[in-house]
Design brief:
single chain, alpha/beta, Protocatechuate 4,5-dioxygenase, Chain B, nine-stranded mixed sheet, two-stranded antiparallel sheet, globular
Length: about 325
């Protein structure tokens, strides 16, 4: 029987790789972003956002605050890493989103479980076509500076897939990365390797949700049900293994929606299923869609107790663009 013994939720934002002095790079990106999504699903530009909301966050967006916030986030990641190493799981199951990395628009499953022998990362081109300020050291934080390879967990993945099918969860699968120069695993998984698993050389079992790209995004209720099915499918496996489940990504971005994030974090901490499963699709667009990864994890760890949580709202501009950084653990 495979047992879930630890749950971890962590943001994987670029600002967790950049020093606080460099967070202004992301602020400049925010001001150029034509696709800032509000919680009611509307897409606005930065100028439209300012016209609607004004610039009430000038004090919070002071760049002088960024280094202290970066240090706070680093300390939170250090704590999660220590908890993961202490737990010594046999497998780390990562629930992440794929942002046109392994999958493209021509083949975009709502849910996929990877059953290959190796998790293969793709080297990012320099200069990067969108994030022009990045360099090789930055991409190393996502394990995307080189065509890296990490061990996967194909036997447990097969049991998970069979168990999900038995439980009524239709799941896509992939058993290889045939052309890693074109498509491979992305930042949701590389961040976990580089930041949390450097001292824990165990296999990863990737679960990929289509959080980002309509029209086949799973609802919050479906995400929770998938997580519950993951726990039951693992328990039915004959493989004797302790499993850590990690939700990679989130919370709100590219608008920092602090009240929304705090409500979600409280629901996660207290296993408030009703709140988690009633979050509307319109509230889960763009980067905020990664909240689905946390909801899926919540469905899998209902038997665990929250032992640590931290939330850090980061306002990068006076209009309120930024990210809600979340860190939490259950055991």
């Amino acid at each position: 029987m495979a047992r879930i013994t630890l749950g971890i939720g962590t943001s994987h934002s670029p600002i967790l790789i950049l020093s606080g002095e460099k967070w202004e790079h992301r602020a400049r990106d925010d001001r150029r972003n034509p696709s800032l999504y509000t919680l009611d699903g509307r897409k606005v530009s930065y100028d439209q956002l300012v016209a609607e909301r004004g610039e009430p966050f000038a004090q919070q967006a002071d760049p002088a605050r960024f280094p202290a916030q970066a240090a706070q986030a680093e300390a939170a990641l250090d704590r999660l890493e220590a908890m993961l190493v202490e737990a010594r799981p046999d497998v780390v199951l990562v629930i992440g989103d794929d942002q046109d990395e392994l999958f493209g628009y021509d083949n975009l499953p709502a849910l996929s479980v990877y059953r290959g022998e190796e998790v293969v990362m793709k080297e990012q081109p320099l200069p990067h076509p969108r994030l022009t300020w990045t360099d090789r050291d930055f991409w190393a934080g996502y394990a995307m500076d080189l065509p890296r390879r990490f061990p996967a967990a194909p036997k447990l993945a097969d049991d998970l897939i069979r168990g999900l099918i038995r439980l009524g969860v239709d799941v896509a699968t992939s058993n290889a990365v045939p052309d890693p120069e074109r498509r491979a695993f992305g930042h949701a998984y590389g961040f976990v390797y580089q930041r949390l698993m450097k001292r824990l050389p165990v296999p990863m079992l990737p679960v990929l949700l289509n959080t980002y790209f309509p029209p086949n995004n799973p609802t919050s209720a479906r995400c929770y049900d998938i997580g519950s099915a993951i726990a039951h499918a693992l328990a039915a496996s004959p493989i004797d293994a302790d499993v850590a489940v990690i939700a990679s990504g989130g919370l709100s971005h590219f608008l920092c929606e602090e009240a929304f994030d705090r409500r979600v974090m409280q629901a996660l901490k207290t296993h408030d299923v009703a709140t988690l499963t009633q979050i509307p699709q319109e509230a889960l667009c763009s980067g905020t869609s990664e909240t689905r990864n946390w909801i899926t994890m919540a469905g899998a760890i209902g038997h665990l107790r929250c032992v640590y949580d931290e939330y850090l709202p980061v306002y990068r501009t006076a209009a309120g663009t930024g990210i809600g950084l979340g860190f939490a653990a259950w055991r």
